[in-house]
Amino acid sequence: MRKDDDSRERTKQYALRVVRLFQALPNTGEASVIGKQLLRSGTSVAANYREASRGRSRAEVRSKLGIVEQELDESLLWLELLADAQIIDAQRLEPLRAETDELIRITVASIRKLRSPPS
Asked: Which three-class secondary structure state does DSSP give residue 2?
């Protein structure tokens, strides 16, 4: 499997983890508002990564990966708010927060590589 295929699957699994977290949130107004925001941004990661993998130019791929980076960063914010507001135990969120951080690092590295001249 190519690296791109691995990343496509990884971002899809990330989106599924976000969906499962959303389903497990308590039935409160705060959890609903923050959860819906997380659901939107977390699932957008996979959709935009898929679009990036089909980019027609380096500039288009870079642009889509920029959106992936933004959506991951936003997802991280919502995860932090879920923990800080004590809606979900911070320890329970840690694996997903760690995966978010790692996906951000991978995405930023890919964007930087695309900014350099092709070899």
From this structure: coil
